[in-house]
Design goal:
alpha/beta, 18% strand
């Protein structure tokens, strides 16, 4: 059986992301390794209240600090679930502002010595996927470590 050192889970708040969270917890527990729960938010420079293009978006004309604090609370809640319900011994959260493709494919895996990336197959609407491409597809094609893409739609957890 393959054993992974450090599992990186890319969280975007979508229902599929929660299914991927379930799997990431199981894998980290089974491998007795650290689970890194990462959310990468893209800064937006438009005059709309919010833009939902996937993998987390900061509100453009709102209070960015407040939006980041809310996302940090989401990650903290996931960490608590992974430790208490998922039985994962070591959990770390990372809230990063940047390009989700770059952060999840290159930067975070290198910084955290990741052996496996776990993500949901889609966090975007179909129109946005056509226009900007799929983060999951990019990660699968370019990552230097194993990637598991979860396609299921429903999570066992209600987080």
């Amino acid at each position: 059986m393959i054993s992974y050192q450090n599992v990186l889970f890319g969280y975007d708040g979508s229902p599929q992301s929660m299914v991927a969270f379930d799997r990431a917890q199981q894998i980290a527990k089974r491998n007795n390794t650290k689970l890194i729960i990462a959310m990468v938010v893209k800064p937006q420079y438009v005059n709309t209240e919010s833009v939902a293009l996937g993998f987390g978006v900061i509100q453009a004309d709102g209070d960015n600090k407040k939006a980041l604090e809310q996302k940090a609370k989401e990650l903290s809640r996931l960490k608590q679930v992974a430790e208490s319900e998922g039985g994962v011994k070591e959990v770390e959260t990372r809230l990063v502002i940047g390009n989700p493709r770059d952060e999840l494919t290159y930067n975070l895996p290198k910084e955290e010595h990741v052996g496996l990336i776990v993500i949901g197959s889609t966090g975007l609407g179909r129109v946005a996927q056509v226009l900007i491409g799929s983060t999951a597809s990019y990660i699968v094609e370019h990552a230097n470590v194993d990637v598991i893409v979860i396609k299921e739609q429903k999570s066992e957890l209600d987080v």
